[in-house]
Amino acid sequence: MKPAWLLLVIGLGAAWTVANADEIPGKAAKGKVLYQRYCLSCHGALGDGRGESAEWLSVKPRDFRQGVFKWRSTPSGSLPLISDLDQRILEGVYGTSMPPWYPIGRKARLDLIAYIQTFSSRWREEQPQEPIEIPAEPAYNQESVDRGRAVFEANECAKCHGDEGRGDGPASNSLKDDWGNSIVPYDLTKGHLKGGNTARDIYRVFMTGLSGTPMPSFSRSIEPPAAWDLVHYIESISGRGAVIAKK
Prior knowledge:
- This protein has helices at residues 4-19, 28-38, 40-43, 82-91, 106-116, 122-125, 142-154, 158-161, 199-208, 224-238, 240-246.
- The protein is globular and about 55 Å long.
- The chain starts with a helix and ends with a helix.
- Helix 4 (82-91) packs across helix 5 (106-116), helix 7 (142-154) crosses helix 10 (224-238) and helix 9 (199-208) crosses helix 10 (224-238).
- It is mainly alpha-helical.
- It has 11 helices and no strands.
């Protein structure tokens, strides 16, 4: 029989593994140095998104104090996984002043994430929910694209993104994020999306939404087959559909 203290350690370890199964967290003290060097000018010393460069940026830096992040694999309202944050730091955000940070390395990025987590009490009080399930993608074809166009229309995506997905819908000039900053719907025809270009990336955005923005989660209103059709429609207007069709 194992001693009681060992059973307790095992139990705590199992609980930690479930709650933090995606990554081992980094060291906040080391991450602070990286933050001050690379992030402070935009995100600010307090993590409030009000660094000295922020007022000049059209897409405002994230306010880390809220623990609210756009690109996640977790459901709407949940904290992201550490791996979600790592991916965003690694790849940057296309079309904004947030660059990819390949040079600082994986271990350093984990340290940086650990420091970013100190800005919000959510990281001490909550655990990220389980990632959403992304089913296998069906074949890309014109029939799926046509159905996706119907999904686009039925869910009134054109109100923000416009009839042709160019980000010029009737509501596009009046949208604001949760901090009161003006926010423009993305032009889906650009051929490169902010949160990643794979079909799974696009599907994930539909089903998780972009927290802190007017882009909602459609997990309760769009079934997975229809969501994949919508992905294929977005790919078709972005120019990627022609590339996929040739494969």
